[in-house]
Design brief:
Macrophage Migration Inhibitory Factor; alpha+beta; 67 residues
């Protein structure tokens, strides 16, 4: 039973985008690992931007969020 965990920042990811992620990730595991579509599980975790960091900085403090 494959388990796929996708983590994204909580920046307005739409229901349709999540559906596409679940469908695409599932199909990739089916195609590459020859696993069953019916037993492949996908979980999407939305992480608050204050809890995400890169380049030793908090994502919410990046230039993208400073206006």
């Amino acid at each position: 039973m494959p388990y796929i965990n996708i983590k994204v920042t909580d920046e307005q990811v739409t229901k349709e985008q999540k559906r596409q992620l679940i469908e695409g990730a599932t199909q990739l595991v089916v195609d590459v690992l020859d696993k069953s579509l019916k037993t492949t599980h996908v979980v999407i975790d939305e992480i608050p931007i204050d809890n995400w960091g890169y380049d030793a900085k908090q994502y919410s403090n990046s230039k993208k969020f400073k206006s």
